[in-house]
Design brief:
Pectate Lyase C-like, single chain, little secondary structure, elongated, 182 residues
């Protein structure tokens, strides 16, 4: 296991790197290339991943709480079970990312691209999704209590079994679907 706490890796090419279980808390990985990297269970608490390239990276169960991922490219990334509490993902590309049962409580996803993302069972309590693109996203069983979805594109988003205090009629009027029967 690598201990890279507070490491300066800005702009580094870490394509296909095996950083499984690595401690990268507080590390500067801004504009780093982590495409297809193995970051399973890695600790990236408070890390700077501004505009980092994490396309198809495996972040299963990783700790990204309080991480700065503004403008990062996470298209097709695997973030199932990841902890993203309070993370800043504003303007990030999470198109077709796998966020099954991820904890995005209090995360900032304003203007993020979540086109066809899998957010089934995700915790989005208090998340900021203002202006986010959730076109065709899977939000089955997601917890949306207090999530701000103002001006978010919900066309074709699946909200079946999603729950929380929100204006369901407004979400359905904006193109989301909901079928709470098996």
């Amino acid at each position: 296991m690598a201990y890279l706490t507070l490491a300066y890796l800005s702009g580094a090419n870490l394509t296909w790197a095996n950083l499984s279980g690595a401690n990268l808390a507080g590390a500067d990985l801004s504009e780093a290339n982590l495409a297809e990297a193995n970051l399973v269970g890695a600790n990236l608490y408070g890390a700077n991943l501004y505009r980092a390239y994490l396309s198809e990276a495996d972040l299963y169960g990783a700790n990204l709480s309080r991480a700065y991922l503004s403008g990062a490219n996470l298209d097709g990334a695997y973030l199932s079970g990841a902890d993203l509490v309070g993370a800043n993902l504003s303007g990030a590309d999470l198109s077709e990312a796998y966020l099954y049962r991820a904890n995005l409580s209090g995360a900032n996803l304003a203007g993020a691209n979540l086109y066809r993302a899998d957010l089934a069972g995700a915790n989005l309590v208090g998340a900021n999704l203002v202006g986010a693109d959730l076109y065709g996203a899977d939000l089955v069983g997601a917890y949306l209590d207090g999530a701000n979805l103002y001006e978010a594109d919900l066309t074709g988003a699946n909200l079946t079994w999603a729950y929380g205090r929100t204006d369901w009629d407004d979400l359905l009027d904006r193109g989301a679907t909901r079928s709470d029967t098996p």
